[in-house]
Amino acid sequence: MIGLERPRLTFAVHEDGSLEVTSPWFPAILIHRDVVATADGRRLALRGDDLEIRCTNGGALYQLGVENRQGFRRGRLLRSWGVT
Prior knowledge:
- By secondary structure, the protein is mostly beta strands.
- The chain contains 1 helix and 7 strands, in the order βββαββββ.
- It has one domain.
- It has one helix at residues 33-36; strands spanning 11-13, 19-21, 28-32, 44-47, 50-55, 58-67, 72-82.
- The strands form 2 sheets. A 5-stranded antiparallel sheet has the order 3-7-6-5-4.
- Strand 6 (58-67) and strand 7 (72-82) form a beta hairpin.
- The longest helix is centred in the middle third of the chain and has 4 residues, at 33-36.
- The chain starts with 10 loop residues before the first strand and ends with a strand.
């Protein structure tokens, strides 16, 4: 048996609420509908099926697929920018 740890996007949250990405931008992610629902247009911006994550040190744009039974959507990295 081989156990693989799922890669996780990790962030630091600053006192002003801004995000700083502390992990690489992975080419594929799973994101839960509860996280997508927090899109405020500032840190997370949802436009159709594209989710943009904006951080103080960069950002990324993921194209989201359809939601599965557990409430997760698969995200495919379209582009990223910044220092990470």
